């Protein structure tokens, strides 16, 4: 069992340069809704970091800030000019375009794809679809695919951006456990092959332990880093292995403690909703 480690304020993680570095980042919505409170967090180059926390603690807010979709109220975010791609729970594909055309469109709007011919983009789209094991489906429309296949297309589209950093907001949250398992394997392979830095938001503790080099816990709102677990289990891991389940149980206990602390402090936030933000280690969502 790994002990929680403290956030490395220097930004260097195990001697590696950070790909993403947040320093005392806060976000206030409107006049007074404090969503994030002085979050300090780094993701090293090539590192896979999972972010866990109760519902509404600011995980999506944090990803949006790193992606540059919104601005922090205070603090700094340094991505060192890295190319960033984002993937959400909904694949958000254009339904009237074929799978291949969805990828080609992404290629057309990226700096790496700009200036390429249509034929080159089609060939690149085919390569990317091969990468996610959808080589035979380029001519299909999104509605002809299963949910897991659509998320693979979304992953291929994210890869089309030739990103160094992949931000993933519950990308597999809507999938069944078996499909999710398969996608974990594929994501892990692609992450390794491409040396990506990944920041992955999930409510599923076992998924976090299955995938992460580190699992970072945010407090209930306002979100701030309360634990940073280093996961040193050998890869590939199995979500249902004893080691993964054991570490997930420790993290789940810590999360429950945090949810209860928050509920005691703010009675309005108690009850089932406050507690269901994160699945217990034994549960699937
Ligand atoms: N654009 C916005 N304007 C105002 N408040 C917002 C906005 N986006 C998020 N919030 C609020 O900020 C807080 C954090 O929201 P956020 O979506 O980042 O949490 P989360 O941890 O991703 O939640 P969940 O796990 O349920 O997806 C919530 O109280 C939410 O209502």
Automatic annotation (TrEMBL):
UniProt biased composition (Polar residues): 276-285
Domain ABC transporter, residue spans: 20-245
InterPro entries (UniProt xref): AAA+_ATPase, ABC_transporter-like_ATP-bd, ABC_transporter-like_CS, ABC_transporter_ATP-bind, P-loop_NTPase
Pfam families on file: ABC_tran
Keywords: ATP-binding, Nucleotide-binding, Transport
GO molecular function: ATP binding; ATP hydrolysis activity
Descriptive protein name: ABC transporter ATP-binding protein
Region spans: Disordered: 261-285
């Amino acid at each position: 069992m790994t002990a929680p480690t403290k956030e490395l304020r220097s930004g260097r993680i195990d001697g590696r340069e950070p790909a993403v570095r947040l320093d005392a980042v806060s976000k206030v919505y409107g006049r007074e809704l404090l969503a994030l409170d002085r979050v300090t967090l780094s993701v090293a180059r090539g590192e896979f970091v999972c972010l866990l926390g109760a519902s509404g603690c600011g995980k999506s807010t944090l990803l949006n800030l790193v992606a540059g979709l919104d601005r922090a109220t205070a603090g700094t975010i340094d991505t060192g000019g890295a190319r960033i791609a984002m993937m959400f729970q909904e694949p958000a594909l254009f339904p009237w375009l074929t799978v291949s055309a969805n990828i080609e469109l992404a290629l057309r709007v990226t700096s790496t794809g700009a200036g390429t011919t249509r034929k080159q983009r089609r060939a690149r789209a085919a390569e990317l679809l091969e990468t996610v094991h959808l080589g035979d489906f380029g001519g299909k429309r999104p509605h002809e695919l299963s949910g897991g296949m659509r998320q693979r297309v979304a992953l291929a589209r994210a890869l089309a951006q030739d990103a160094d950093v992949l931000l993933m907001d519950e990308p597999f949250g809507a999938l069944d456990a078996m499909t999710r398992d398969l996608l974990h394997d594929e994501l892990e392979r692609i992450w390794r092959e491409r040396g990506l830095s990944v920041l992955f938001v999930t409510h599923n503790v076992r998924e976090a332990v299955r995938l992460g080099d580190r699992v970072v816990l945010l407090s209930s709102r306002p979100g701030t880093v309360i634990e940073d677990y280093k996961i040193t289990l050998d890869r590939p891991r199995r979500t249902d292995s004893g080691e993964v389940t054991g570490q997930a149980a420790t993290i789940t206990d810590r999360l429950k403690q945090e949810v209860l602390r928050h509920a005691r402090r703010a009675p309005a936030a108690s009850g089932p909703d406050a507690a269901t933000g994160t699945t217990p280690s034994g549960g699937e969502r």
